[in-house]
Automatic annotation (TrEMBL):
<feature type="site" description="Raises pKa of active site His">
    <location>
        <position position="144"/>
    </location>
</feature>
<feature type="domain" description="Formyl transferase N-terminal">
    <location>
        <begin position="2"/>
        <end position="181"/>
    </location>
</feature>
<feature type="active site" description="Proton donor">
    <location>
        <position position="108"/>
    </location>
</feature>
<dbReference type="InterPro" id="IPR002376">
    <property type="entry name" value="Formyl_transf_N"/>
</dbReference>
<comment type="pathway">
    <text>Purine metabolism; IMP biosynthesis via de novo pathway; N(2)-formyl-N(1)-(5-phospho-D-ribosyl)glycinamide from N(1)-(5-phospho-D-ribosyl)glycinamide (10-formyl THF route): step 1/1.</text>
</comment>
<feature type="binding site">
    <location>
        <begin position="11"/>
        <end position="13"/>
    </location>
    <ligand>
        <name>N(1)-(5-phospho-beta-D-ribosyl)glycinamide</name>
    </ligand>
</feature>
<keyword id="KW-0658">Purine biosynthesis</keyword>
<protein>
    <recommendedName>
        <fullName>Phosphoribosylglycinamide formyltransferase</fullName>
        <ecNumber>2.1.2.2</ecNumber>
    </recommendedName>
</protein>
<feature type="binding site">
    <location>
        <position position="106"/>
    </location>
    <ligand>
        <name>(6R)-10-formyltetrahydrofolate</name>
    </ligand>
</feature>
<comment type="function">
    <text>Catalyzes the transfer of a formyl group from 10-formyltetrahydrofolate to 5-phospho-ribosyl-glycinamide (GAR), producing 5-phospho-ribosyl-N-formylglycinamide (FGAR) and tetrahydrofolate.</text>
</comment>
<dbReference type="InterPro" id="IPR004607">
    <property type="entry name" value="GART"/>
</dbReference>
<dbReference type="InterPro" id="IPR036477">
    <property type="entry name" value="Formyl_transf_N_sf"/>
</dbReference>
<dbReference type="Pfam" id="PF00551">
    <property type="entry name" value="Formyl_trans_N"/>
</dbReference>
<keyword id="KW-0808">Transferase</keyword>
<feature type="binding site">
    <location>
        <position position="64"/>
    </location>
    <ligand>
        <name>(6R)-10-formyltetrahydrofolate</name>
    </ligand>
</feature>
<comment type="similarity">
    <text>Belongs to the GART family.</text>
</comment>
Length: 203
Protein backbone atom coordinates (compact mmCIF):
# COMPACT_ATOMS: atom_id res chain seq x y z
CA UNK A 1 0.00 0.00 0.00
CA UNK A 2 1.40 3.37 -1.06
CA UNK A 3 1.15 5.75 1.90
CA UNK A 4 1.56 9.51 2.28
CA UNK A 5 2.13 11.14 5.67
CA UNK A 6 0.87 14.67 6.26
CA UNK A 7 2.61 16.71 8.96
CA UNK A 8 2.78 20.27 10.26
CA UNK A 9 5.71 20.16 12.65
CA UNK A 10 8.18 17.97 14.48
CA UNK A 11 7.11 14.75 12.80
CA UNK A 12 8.01 12.25 15.48
CA UNK A 13 5.04 10.07 14.59
CA UNK A 14 6.12 10.32 10.95
CA UNK A 15 9.55 9.00 11.95
CA UNK A 16 7.97 6.05 13.77
CA UNK A 17 5.94 5.15 10.68
CA UNK A 18 8.96 5.48 8.38
CA UNK A 19 11.05 3.26 10.67
CA UNK A 20 8.32 0.63 11.00
CA UNK A 21 7.78 0.51 7.25
CA UNK A 22 11.39 -0.62 6.74
CA UNK A 23 10.62 -3.99 8.30
CA UNK A 24 10.39 -6.87 5.86
CA UNK A 25 6.77 -7.74 5.19
CA UNK A 26 5.38 -4.48 6.54
CA UNK A 27 2.26 -3.91 4.41
CA UNK A 28 2.80 -0.20 3.73
CA UNK A 29 5.41 1.83 1.90
CA UNK A 30 5.86 5.51 2.77
CA UNK A 31 6.17 7.21 -0.63
CA UNK A 32 5.48 10.85 0.18
CA UNK A 33 5.55 13.34 3.06
CA UNK A 34 3.71 16.64 2.74
CA UNK A 35 3.58 19.55 5.15
CA UNK A 36 1.39 22.65 5.11
CA UNK A 37 4.26 24.46 6.85
CA UNK A 38 7.55 25.00 5.00
CA UNK A 39 9.47 25.05 8.31
CA UNK A 40 8.25 21.65 9.53
CA UNK A 41 11.26 19.80 10.95
CA UNK A 42 9.87 16.49 9.70
CA UNK A 43 10.44 17.44 6.04
CA UNK A 44 14.22 17.42 6.37
CA UNK A 45 14.18 14.10 8.16
CA UNK A 46 12.04 12.47 5.48
CA UNK A 47 14.35 13.74 2.72
CA UNK A 48 17.38 12.50 4.66
CA UNK A 49 16.03 8.96 4.41
CA UNK A 50 15.22 9.32 0.71
CA UNK A 51 11.49 10.00 0.86
CA UNK A 52 10.00 12.67 -1.38
CA UNK A 53 8.92 15.45 0.93
CA UNK A 54 7.71 18.95 0.32
CA UNK A 55 5.64 21.76 1.68
CA UNK A 56 2.39 23.02 0.27
CA UNK A 57 2.09 26.28 2.14
CA UNK A 58 -1.58 26.84 2.96
CA UNK A 59 -0.95 30.61 3.19
CA UNK A 60 -0.32 30.68 -0.56
CA UNK A 61 -3.90 29.63 -1.31
CA UNK A 62 -6.98 31.87 -1.28
CA UNK A 63 -9.17 29.39 0.57
CA UNK A 64 -9.42 25.94 2.09
CA UNK A 65 -10.90 24.26 -0.99
CA UNK A 66 -8.06 25.46 -3.24
CA UNK A 67 -5.42 24.27 -0.78
CA UNK A 68 -7.15 20.92 -0.43
CA UNK A 69 -7.29 20.57 -4.23
CA UNK A 70 -3.53 21.10 -4.43
CA UNK A 71 -2.98 18.47 -1.75
CA UNK A 72 -5.30 16.07 -3.53
CA UNK A 73 -3.45 16.58 -6.82
CA UNK A 74 -0.07 15.80 -5.17
CA UNK A 75 -1.42 12.66 -3.53
CA UNK A 76 -2.92 11.36 -6.75
CA UNK A 77 0.18 12.19 -8.80
CA UNK A 78 2.22 10.05 -6.39
CA UNK A 79 -0.21 7.14 -6.64
CA UNK A 80 -1.03 7.38 -2.94
CA UNK A 81 -3.59 4.85 -1.72
CA UNK A 82 -3.73 5.70 1.99
CA UNK A 83 -3.10 8.94 3.87
CA UNK A 84 -1.77 9.13 7.45
CA UNK A 85 -2.21 12.40 9.31
CA UNK A 86 0.55 12.83 11.89
CA UNK A 87 0.32 16.14 13.70
CA UNK A 88 -1.28 17.77 10.65
CA UNK A 89 -2.88 20.92 12.00
CA UNK A 90 -5.24 21.94 9.20
CA UNK A 91 -8.93 21.18 9.02
CA UNK A 92 -10.02 19.78 5.62
CA UNK A 93 -12.98 20.73 3.51
CA UNK A 94 -15.75 18.11 3.52
CA UNK A 95 -15.04 17.43 -0.17
CA UNK A 96 -11.45 16.40 0.49
CA UNK A 97 -12.49 14.14 3.36
CA UNK A 98 -15.17 12.51 1.19
CA UNK A 99 -12.65 11.95 -1.61
CA UNK A 100 -10.37 10.05 0.83
CA UNK A 101 -13.11 8.42 2.89
CA UNK A 102 -11.94 5.06 4.20
CA UNK A 103 -8.40 5.84 3.00
CA UNK A 104 -7.27 8.41 5.57
CA UNK A 105 -6.37 7.87 9.23
CA UNK A 106 -5.23 10.20 12.02
CA UNK A 107 -3.56 9.92 15.41
CA UNK A 108 -5.03 11.98 18.23
CA UNK A 109 -3.45 12.35 21.69
CA UNK A 110 -6.42 11.32 23.83
CA UNK A 111 -8.71 8.37 24.37
CA UNK A 112 -11.46 9.49 21.97
CA UNK A 113 -14.28 10.39 22.16
CA UNK A 114 -12.86 12.24 25.17
CA UNK A 115 -10.85 15.43 24.73
CA UNK A 116 -11.15 16.41 21.08
CA UNK A 117 -9.32 19.40 19.68
CA UNK A 118 -6.11 20.84 21.10
CA UNK A 119 -4.48 20.87 24.56
CA UNK A 120 -5.71 17.34 25.17
CA UNK A 121 -3.30 16.68 28.03
CA UNK A 122 -4.44 19.80 29.88
CA UNK A 123 -8.04 18.76 29.20
CA UNK A 124 -7.39 15.33 30.70
CA UNK A 125 -5.78 16.81 33.80
CA UNK A 126 -8.64 19.28 34.23
CA UNK A 127 -11.15 16.43 34.00
CA UNK A 128 -9.31 14.41 36.63
CA UNK A 129 -9.25 11.18 34.62
CA UNK A 130 -6.91 8.44 35.83
CA UNK A 131 -6.33 7.02 32.35
CA UNK A 132 -5.35 8.96 29.27
CA UNK A 133 -3.81 7.90 25.97
CA UNK A 134 -4.01 8.08 22.20
CA UNK A 135 -6.28 6.97 19.39
CA UNK A 136 -5.86 6.12 15.71
CA UNK A 137 -9.10 6.67 13.82
CA UNK A 138 -10.43 7.03 10.29
CA UNK A 139 -10.97 10.65 9.31
CA UNK A 140 -14.51 11.91 8.84
CA UNK A 141 -15.63 15.51 8.28
CA UNK A 142 -16.27 16.06 12.01
CA UNK A 143 -12.98 16.89 13.78
CA UNK A 144 -11.45 14.08 15.88
CA UNK A 145 -14.43 11.83 15.28
CA UNK A 146 -14.55 8.78 13.03
CA UNK A 147 -14.30 5.03 13.46
CA UNK A 148 -11.60 3.97 15.91
CA UNK A 149 -8.88 1.60 14.69
CA UNK A 150 -6.74 1.31 17.84
CA UNK A 151 -6.05 2.92 21.19
CA UNK A 152 -3.37 2.84 23.86
CA UNK A 153 -3.79 3.99 27.47
CA UNK A 154 -1.37 5.42 30.01
CA UNK A 155 -1.90 6.20 33.71
CA UNK A 156 -2.22 9.78 34.89
CA UNK A 157 0.18 10.14 37.80
CA UNK A 158 0.13 12.42 40.83
CA UNK A 159 2.10 15.53 40.03
CA UNK A 160 1.64 15.26 36.26
CA UNK A 161 1.54 18.45 34.27
CA UNK A 162 0.58 18.61 30.59
CA UNK A 163 4.21 18.13 29.51
CA UNK A 164 4.90 15.07 31.66
CA UNK A 165 1.62 13.52 30.55
CA UNK A 166 2.35 14.32 26.89
CA UNK A 167 5.75 12.66 27.23
CA UNK A 168 4.11 9.46 28.52
CA UNK A 169 1.49 9.49 25.75
CA UNK A 170 3.88 10.14 22.85
CA UNK A 171 5.82 6.95 23.67
CA UNK A 172 2.58 5.05 23.13
CA UNK A 173 1.75 7.03 19.98
CA UNK A 174 5.02 5.87 18.46
CA UNK A 175 4.04 2.22 19.10
CA UNK A 176 0.37 2.55 18.26
CA UNK A 177 0.51 4.31 14.91
CA UNK A 178 2.76 1.79 13.15
CA UNK A 179 0.65 -1.06 14.52
CA UNK A 180 -2.58 0.61 13.41
CA UNK A 181 -1.22 1.39 9.95
CA UNK A 182 -0.18 -2.24 9.57
CA UNK A 183 -3.71 -3.32 10.47
CA UNK A 184 -5.33 -0.93 8.00
CA UNK A 185 -2.87 -1.44 5.13
CA UNK A 186 -2.68 -5.19 5.67
CA UNK A 187 -6.43 -5.70 5.71
CA UNK A 188 -6.55 -6.66 9.39
CA UNK A 189 -8.88 -3.75 10.04
CA UNK A 190 -11.82 -2.98 7.78
CA UNK A 191 -14.41 -0.25 7.82
CA UNK A 192 -17.94 -1.55 8.12
CA UNK A 193 -20.31 1.40 8.19
CA UNK A 194 -19.25 3.58 11.09
CA UNK A 195 -17.28 0.85 12.85
CA UNK A 196 -13.90 -0.75 12.33
CA UNK A 197 -13.96 -4.52 12.27
CA UNK A 198 -10.71 -6.13 13.39
CA UNK A 199 -10.08 -9.49 11.74
CA UNK A 200 -9.09 -11.98 14.34
CA UNK A 201 -6.43 -14.51 13.47
CA UNK A 202 -8.56 -17.46 14.47
CA UNK A 203 -7.19 -17.50 18.01
C1 LIG B 1 1.09 14.20 18.41
O1 LIG B 1 0.83 14.22 19.80
C2 LIG B 1 -0.16 13.86 17.66
O2 LIG B 1 -0.97 12.92 18.30
C3 LIG B 1 -0.85 15.18 17.63
O3 LIG B 1 0.16 16.13 17.41
C4 LIG B 1 1.40 15.60 17.89
C5 LIG B 1 2.33 15.58 16.73
O4 LIG B 1 3.64 15.23 17.10
N1 LIG B 1 -1.92 15.18 16.65
P1 LIG B 1 4.69 14.81 15.98
O5 LIG B 1 4.72 15.94 14.96
O6 LIG B 1 4.27 13.51 15.38
O7 LIG B 1 5.99 14.71 16.72
Amino acid sequence: TRVAILISGRGSNMVSLIEAAKAPGYPAEIVLVLSNRPDAAGLAHARSVGITAHAIDHRAFPDRATFDAALDAELRAAGVELVCLAGFMRVFSAGFVEAWAGRMINIHPSLLPLFKGTHTHAQALAAGVRLHGCTVHYVVPELDAGPIVAQAAVPVRAGDDPDSLAARVIVQEHRLYPAALALVAGGGARLQGDRVVIEDDGA
